[in-house]
């Protein structure tokens, strides 16, 4: 009989993270750490806290950005301009494993909270500076919001239609920076495990998103032409687009080679003669005759419902997908079948949330803690630092903490 093994603990259990953070890039990075078991203490401003708390009220009265990026954290509210408030952060950092900040350029250094200063004082600390454009160079002091960085990184130039460039519908620059900060922390913690030293980690939104632009960048830098904006179509493959169906849906299909075109013509279009027609038999020919090729596919799929179209394409071995809206993603059958949804606590009650995509089979499930209210954990954290009830009351009375 094979003995049952105890599940492995979450990999970051025992790691403490202190974050002076706001908006998306740093909060999304530290949420990944919290999901993997780290204790994350989120330091917020007294006057409203992280300004992402006020972006909207769509999540049962809470801001959807904040709910997404801040579950599983402890919130403390401090006035960092008061030396007593700033001292609290420095005392927390002294016992922390990781510090993360994404304040405006120069603000962390003025508070002594930049990565270089903190790592010099605490050699085992991993300290992360997230910025828009980096700490040096002509753009160092430039204000950086996601859409602006999408423009500077060239993402907008390759996204959209021939007539209109568009930004990505998600905060791609913020997310890119967050995920490099997350992986940078993990790498630095591994290095600390072998050397005993942490060290600074620097991530800029521009550099993170520029890395994601790798394909068009390398294409252009090494002699190619800038990729055309083609909407949902592919610039150099046909048919590869979304096509309307009889029930008002849209189905995207991709024909990657001439064998697939032959199957599409025979089994879906019902015109087997197109398989060998010189106007369509090869991908270059189909691209040259894109309008006619698309019209043939659109006519065939337009006679079918979306489910029928997907079934017909899959039966023919053609890669395809439903063009889903966000409501449909929330009810996606694959996510439901894989049991990817959970509920997390919040000040307004349980909220539905998606399990993080990092799955560790044989280990504890990701920690999906509650979304904190502003300053919910201030008193408890201050008492952990050794403050008496009288000292905590004094800080509350003087509006140093909340």
Query: Which outline best applies?
Result: elongated
**Tally of individual helices:** 17
The share of residues in helices is: 25-40%
What proportion strand?
A: 5-15%
Biggest β-sheet: count, sense, barrel?
6 strands, parallel
Cα-to-Cα separation, first versus last residue: 56 Å
Describe the protein.
By secondary structure, the protein is of the alpha/beta class. Helix content is 38%, strand content 13%. The protein contains 17 helices and eleven strands. The protein has helices spanning 25-35, 64-70, 83-94, 107-110, 115-121, 146-152, 172-195, 205-212, 214-221, 258-267, 283-288, 290-302, 306-315, 326-330, 333-337, 378-384, 389-397; strands spanning 16-20, 39-44, 73-77, 98-101, 126-131, 199-204, 240-244, 250-254, 319-322, 341-344, 351-354. The strands form three sheets. Strands 3-2-1-4-5-6 form a six-stranded parallel sheet, sandwiched between helices. The longest helix has 24 residues, at 172-195. The radius of gyration is 26 Å and the shape is elongated. The relative contact order is 0.14. The model has no long low-confidence stretch (mean pLDDT 97).
